[in-house]
Amino acid sequence: MQLPYELFIGLRYTRAKKRERSNHFISFISLISMLGIGLGVAALIVVLSVMNGFQKELRDRILGVASHVQISTASGELSDWQTTQAAASRHPEVLSAAPYVQAQGMLSFDQQVRGVLVRGILPAAEEKVADFERHMKNGKLDALQPGEFGIILGSELARALLVLPGDKVTLIAPQGLVTPAAILPRLKQFRVVGIFEVGMFEFDSGMALIHMEDAQKLYRMDDRVSGVRLKVGDLFAAPRIARELLGMLGSEVWISDWTRSHANFFRAVAIEKNMMFLILLLIVAVAAFNIVSTLVMAVTDKQADIAILRTLGASPGSVMVIFIVQGVLIGVIGLALGVAGGVALALNVDVVVPAIEHVLGMQFLAKEVYYITELPSDLQWRDVIVITSVSFVLTLVATLYPSWRAARVNPAAALKYE
């Protein structure tokens, strides 16, 4: 099949013959534009993939401690929790459920005092809805036995209190004992049986785990609990599942999901990702609009050719298409290079970054600062498609003005001095 002459001429204009010295400079600028678009697109793909990786890593760490769905009441105490747990477990998308007791307290050890969020758990059930066992640095979750008053601390909390496994700490509950003289706080000694580290400072520095029965005794909750935690099959379906459970359990319970309990954090991450996309898109925009200067010089250099084409019967629209083809070809080649390089780098960040660290002799992510030893990457093809589409539109827009100028060339004026 014979190519349309507009496409053929546009493709021809993108490369210069050896004897056409004036075209070599234009071809050089075209090459720089291609590389600029490719670099911008690759940077966008890699940066968004790394941000997706960080978001996924932090989400996994948060949900390793927090629940997908949480059932509680307005008073903070759920009396008939066995019935509630059984009813919630009947939902086809709920994988497991575990009761919990949650309250505030203070830990004291050798002149050190720290506020703490105390969570009473059933170790066997808790392991099905959270990943504490995977994050244990010392000891095991099943070391919490009823009546033995064992406690598991976050790593930062243990470091602040200067305690080690086996030490005994004093847990002070705000619910006091009323006596004729005064209200005395409730105190109980607990033995440290383990230390966990999930990599989130909020949890590592302010959470302690005890057995649920010990928590019920300390906080005088009898057989009541604070609520029931649920794990669902699809964590992104948690808001929908929470609404369905509310219809099943009635309005007397409060149901929240992880998107609400950590809404501000995930909203901040999403905003940061969008702003990074817009900032890096400026790189692509600058490279794309370099095509304007390339085509303007090409139009100036090819005025005689344009005039001859017009005298041979080419319409202004055909002349415009010729230079649009030239500009789009530059953009498409740059896009192809950028997508190929960006995808390859995003899929191999775990290999490339350690190699760069080895060459430079430095570590980008120190574990004691970031809790993450390697740069995470999560390539999402939806992002690649959006980046490619937006970059192509920018490239296409950049070709319109020079092509319009080419279409307005007057053949008589262009050939006057030829």
TL;DR of this structure?
55% of the residues lie in helices and 19% in strands. With 418 residues, the chain is an alpha+beta fold.
Strand order of the largest sheet: 2-3-8-5-7-6
Question: How large a portion of the residues is in β-strands, by DSSP E?
Answer: 15-25%
Q: Using the alpha-carbon principal axes, give the shape.
A: elongated
Helix share bin: 40-55%
Provide a count of the helices. Answer: 16
The structural class is: alpha+beta
Question: End-to-end distance, in Å?
Answer: 35 Å
Molecular structure report:
The protein is of the alpha+beta class and about 425 residues long. It folds into two domains: about 5-60 and about 265-415, no CATH class; about 70-260, no CATH class. The protein has 16 helices and ten strands. Strands 2-3-8-5-7-6 form a six-stranded mixed β-barrel, surrounded by four helices. Helix 2 packs antiparallel against helix 10 (about 265-300) and helix 10 packs parallel to helix 15. The longest helix is centred in the first third of the chain and has 43 residues, at about 20-65. The model has no long low-confidence stretch (mean pLDDT about 80).
